[in-house]
Design a protein that fits this description.
This protein has helices spanning 2-11, 36-45, 47-53, 58-63, 71-91, 98-106, 113-127, 133-142, 148-165, 168-176, 185-188. It is mainly alpha-helical. The longest helix is centred in the middle third of the chain and has 21 residues, at 71-91. The protein is globular, with a radius of gyration of 17 Å.
């Protein structure tokens, strides 16, 4: 289902298709009759249209999620925006500003912080410099503008992503850079 919605979101950019959601990038997702899986896919995959409508502003893009209910669908939208934001930075040859990005995440209701942090880490893995994504993930987790909870979430997601991305010698090196009190089983278990 996600591929269908991603394609529709991307087609909004092409004049010959004459698709128009007005000022609501999630208009299609608000229609009745979808399954839960389809609603989740729709809210997550409208991310490219949201980023385009927000002129590449992460904070502005997240603002489009304010009217999404229930919260589980808003979390899908937030996660999708966080991922696509990293792609947008790469396409425009810009670097991630960890503090500004985290400020946008922490301005969201607390229940959405996990989706925002998870999306950012996922976006870094997907669109970061190959083999060096961990440097950006560490910079994000070390940023000053974290709350206690978002810092914990960031390190947890970093460790899971690192375990799933890097071989043992590099993983051990990455884990050595994480404060011991923030290490999870992904770093404390022998690999």
């Amino acid at each position: 289902a996600s591929g269908v919605f991603a394609s529709i979101a991307n087609m909004h950019n092409v004049p010959r298709y004459r698709l128009d959601s007005g000022n609501d990038p999630y208009a299609l997702c608000r229609k009745e009759g979808y399954s839960d899986t389809e609603y989740r896919a729709c809210y997550n995959q409208m991310n490219s249209m949201v980023m385009l409508m927000s002129d590449s502003s992460f904070e502005h893009a997240l603002g489009y999620t304010n009217t999404i209910a229930p919260l589980k669908y808003r979390a899908e939208a937030v996660s999708g925006i966080a991922v696509i934001y990293l792609q947008d930075l790469k396409q425009h040859d810009r670097s991630l500003d960890p503090n500004a990005t985290l400020s946008a995440c922490t301005a969201l209701p607390n229940a959405l912080a996990p989706a925002c942090i998870s999306g950012l880490i996922g976006g870094i893995v997907e669109f970061g410099a190959p083999g060096k994504q961990y440097e950006t993930m560490l910079a994000l987790c070390e940023a000053e503008s974290h709350t206690t909870e978002t810092r914990r979430l960031c390190y947890e997601h970093l460790q899971t992503a690192a375990k799933n991305t890097y071989a043992s010698p590099l993983l051990k090196s990455i884990c050595a850079r994480i404060p011991p009190e923030r290490q999870t089983d992904d770093c404390t278990t022998d690999h």
